[in-house]
# Entry
Amino acid sequence: MKELIARLFQVDVLKAMGVTFRTQHPGNVCTEQYPLERPMVAERYRGAPWLNNHPESGETLCISCNLRALACSENLIVVGWERDEPTRRKVLTTFTYDTSRCMFCRFCEDACPTDALELTQDFEMAYYSREGAIWDRHRLEEGPTPARYTR
# Structure
């Protein structure tokens, strides 16, 4: 009989609603004001890619060895190069990185012998089209540019 009354008046639902309304008191609510206050990101978070340059000469650190593209399990990195005849070195011509397919596994960063590519802590990588997610060499060298919002 007690069970029938509990089902009839839905005591469990009323208890759950009581817990919900107790925690929704305005003093207990914690809301992040996202655009104005950037959230804390974990130290080991991997986000937007960045192609490093040499600090003194300004040249890219990429030696066009193609190890990053081989290490990538998604085949989203394309490295284009040509050989410089006087020095017999490879010169980077094109570098594309498809962030829409990236799993941010960091295999490309680990495979690079010169630490030319690194994954930063920037997480704002939303675009209106798929073409915006394919980053070329200039976009990668520029690095992530997080938006700054003001009131």
